Request: fold
Amino acid sequence: MTRRKQLDRREFLTQSGRMVGGVSIFGGIIGLFGKQAASMPAYAIRPPSALPEEEFLGACIRCGMCVRDCPYDILHLAELQEEVALGTPYFVAHEIPCEMCEDIPCVRNCPTGALDRDMEDIEKAEMGIAVLVDHETCLNILGLRCDICYRVCPVMDEAISLERIPNLRTGSHAIFVPTVHSDRCTGCGLCEHACPLPVAAIKVLPETIAKGQLGEHYRLGWEEKEKIGGSLVTPDKEHEYNLPEGFQYDLTGEGLTGPSVDN
Amino acid sequence: MARNVVGEAAIKEKGWIRSHKWLIMRRISQLSIIALFLLGPLASIWFLGDLEEEFWIIKGNLVSSVVLDTVPLTDPFVYLQTLFAGQAFEITALIGALIVAIFYLLVGGRVYCSWVCPMNIVTDTAGWLRRRLGIKKKCDSSPNIRFWVLGMAMVLALISGTLLWELVNPVTLLQRSIFYSFGMGWITVVGIFLYDLLWSRNGWCGHLCPMGAFYSLLGKFSLLRVRVAERSACDDCMDCFTVCPEPQVIRPALKGENGEGPVIDRSQCTNCGRCIDICGPDVFTFGGRFNNK
Reply:
């Protein structure tokens, strides 16, 4: 009787050990695979008001409610062969961009808050940031007045403006550079979708890729000036030159002049 | 008495319909749940007569949905993962998960497996074909692995802060694929079918699936149970053991081992009712858990 019990225990331990071992290895593989799967490709854009990517992957329950509620059938749940984490919603701007519905139906029924249901203003969305990535093919920069990205932008004149610079090639024309302002751009992708080039020169990218960061110690003089309402430094005193008699020094003009310099 | 076909005796005694009653009901249940989800805005035409106002009877998928735009339903297994991931203590999902949990607390957790989950159709078919083809190869793994896999899924969520298991979960993958679109998801489903068919009897649902393990724990004290009503009528034909997806649950109650039974109160029982169907002398019946004498 005792012998049998001991055997049972041994059997139990080896069996449990095998199970725990197997399951741990399996778990490790999933963990490594998950790390790879968690990196979003740059072309994939989450629905508006999505949590930051890492939190999103913990909160999104993959029910597809947002997919059902999108009136334009833009959103799509990632399938097995795709590069986005399995079952999570995204869209690809150059295929079909976000139409920026004012009532934002896609976020209203999210059961877990992976999308912020209380978002009020679609213009506050930060799905990504459009970047004029190719200055060599952009028709506007080549000197034409394409302006399409500027005109389709739902936050027109604020998210994309046309900044004029002289066209040095012709010497007599202007170049209207489409310029994205990241604080107003929602990342909807209408500009990328509308770009007439076979491959768009303007693309929506994740903020982490699209944005640089200014060192914290930088102060923009013109902004500081505006804040204070005047010059930041005390004005220079008139400089006094200690020159021999008859000599003058003109800082912006002729330089040193005097009675006998030319001789 | 040697028989080729399992269940022949039951068919002879009760007729085909009565010996497949619960199986047919389960298929109707599984398919109509899928149909309700897929019906989608078509419901507007049938009930309202126009398509202006979109109207869904149930929207979402089996992981999370809303019924008639009001009642939320959330799968407590996936919801638990989001909690372990440190996310989403969100009231809608919480209410939805509670409603679903209470339902399965009453009727038996694994009712989800046998009456709702579409994967059940895949693995049942594999099991049926296996019997038909007489494939005997089996891999003697413990049906308890799934509890470790369940633990692993939660630990993975806890460590990573994301739903790692949902990156590979074939059950939710299949459900999503049906309701949205199939990509390469087919491969996983075919893989499970072949695994169940060629390698291990009830290999997925009966041994590995952590959702089954979760629902099994959830339904530990459920009210609805299969009951051995006529222990003396059993003629030891073994048909119930052959068709049961969790055959280990039958013996204690049927044979009265260790004073167990007549209620099958092992939580791994899926309440599928196949044993009731397949039994010629009608040994089994559905009953309450307290009717245990």
Observations:
- Chain B touches chain A through 56 residues (CB under 8 Å).
- The first strand of chain B starts at residue 58 and ends at 61.
- DSSP finds 15 helices and five strands in chain B.
- The two ends of chain B are 32 Å apart (CA to CA).
